[in-house]
Design a protein that fits this description.
Layout lengths: L19 H11 L6 H21 L12 H6 L5 H21 L5 H50 L5 E2 L2 E8 L10 E8 L2 E9 L3 H21 L3 H15 L6 E8 L3 E8 L5 E3 L5 E3 L22 E5 L4 E5 L1 H4 L12 H9 L6 H19 L7 E8 L3
Antiparallel strand pairs: 1-2, 2-11, 3-4, 4-5, 5-6, 6-9, 7-8, 7-10, 10-11
Helix pairs in contact: 1-5, 2-4, 4-5, 6-7, 9-10
GO molecular function, one term: phosphatase activity
InterPro entries: Bact_Sigma-Reg, PPM-type-like_dom_sf, PPM-type_phosphatase-like_dom
Organism: Kitasatospora xanthocidica
Length: about 400
């Protein structure tokens, strides 16, 4: 939910919501304080240099030092108050040096220099105050962002790297810049009926999407333990969506059940088809034989959804994602990301260990960012699953 937004791996949040280092990171990123001082000071220092060169090269008959008043304004955008005073002091010294170079000795020029210096000092103090206000607002924004991210993590209840016979690796990125929350969802539960997985994508973004995601996840976490089959689980979720989600809103979803070694059962509700990558790195797109409408639109369809079985061995990798991945556009051509064509070599051999799997999801995510030029415009979820029970 998460600048470029940060990708998250499965980990448990602290009792306060987010670890202190992540809260501090949110503040630093909000006000550019994670950027070194010399880089943040560069625009103001360049302004000092340009004004000094302009005055020096224009000759002694022209006095351009008053243009130095642009420096405090530029510095207020990126520097802390104390840093601003330091850089602006350098500008003031430059004004003094230019006055000697231009031989300011008559009474009119001296008055002009005095007025320019007073204006510069006043503007510097005012800019320092503006910088302080900017930092306060950045701190408030970072606090809201951290709370929103903590709420998202609490909603998802991120699983550990191993659930039952499954090993997981995930990347989740939200397109909601201000709040770092989005409508993509996933859950992995060990139940009396086997290990069950839900992946979904709520229509829209922001808080409304999160509310719908909460309904879907809450219903799944209850039904997954109670219902003997995936169709029963999905029916319970569909009923909750119809009761608690506004008309017209829908959620694409994919459910998977792992009960028998070497096999899995799938149920698709208008979601992106899963991909199974075998031990040779070949990608197999698992299209549903009877695709069904998304959750929330069931009343518009006749009949009932059906599950279908697929092989899933110990050396296979199951790739689940949302449309934020496959609809990510190329940075120049605008073409969609060809996940099915590129994922095979990227995750080949990932079933060997937990470290290999985490490295593999990192490779896929890095390849996705390279395709888009480093920015995703939609919520994106990428989940890799392997099994450890043979």
């Amino acid at each position: 939910m998460f600048p470029l937004r940060r990708a998250q791996s499965p980990s448990a949040p602290t009792a306060a919501g987010l670890p202190p280092d992540r809260q501090r990171g949110a503040l630093l990123a909000a006000d550019l304080q994670d950027v070194p001082f010399w880089r943040r000071a560069t625009p103001a220092l360049i302004a000092v240099l340009l004004v000094g060169l302009a005055d020096f090269l224009s000759g002694k008959d022209r006095y351009l030092a008053p243009l130095m008043t642009v420096v405090p304004t530029v510095a207020a955008l990126t520097l802390k108050p104390r840093e601003l005073l330091l850089v602006c002091s350098l500008g003031l010294l430059t004004v003094f040096g230019l006055s000697h170079h231009d031989e300011v000795d008559n009474i009119n020029d001296a008055r002009f220099l005095y007025g320019a210096m007073v204006s510069y000092v006043v503007l510097t103090l005012f800019s320092a105050w503006v910088a302080k206000i900017r930092m306060r607002r950045a701190a408030a924004f970072a606090a809201v962002s951290s709370v929103a991210e903590a709420a998202q993590r609490a909603l998802l209840q991120l699983p550990g790297p191993t659930v039952g016979p499954l090993r997981l690796a995930v990347r989740y990125v939200s397109a909601a810049d201000a709040s770092r929350i989005g409508g993509d969802l996933y859950s992995v539960l060990e139940t009396p009926h086997g290990t069950r997985v839900a992946v979904g994508d709520v229509r829209g973004k922001g808080l409304a999407a999160v509310q719908t995601a909460a309904v879907v996840l809450g219903a799944f976490r209850e039904a997954a333990y109670d219902e003997a089959g995936l169709r029963g689980v999905a029916a319970r979720i569909e009923a909750s969506v119809e009761r608690h989600v506004p008309d017209g809103e829908f959620t694409t979803a994919l459910f998977a059940e792992f009960r028998t070694p070497g096999a899995m059962e799938l149920l698709q509700y208008g979601h992106v088809p899963p991909i199974r990558v075998d031990h040779e790195g070949r990608a197999h797109v698992l299209d549903a034989p009877d695709p069904w409408v998304p959750l929330g639109l069931g009343r518009l369809a006749a009949g009932e959804p059906t599950t279908w079985a697929q092989p899933f061995g110990a050396e296979d990798v199951l790739v689940l994602c949302t449309d934020g991945v496959i609809e990510a556009r190329h940075r120049t051509s605008g073409e969609f990301y060809p996940l099915a064509e590129r994922v095979g070599p990227l995750v080949r051999g990932a079933a060997r260990s937990e470290g290999e799997l985490e490295t593999a999801v990192g490779r896929v995510y890095a390849d996705l960012l390279a395709h888009t030029g480093g920015e995703l415009r939609d919520d994106a979820l990428l989940l890799l699953i392997v099994r450890t029970d043979g």
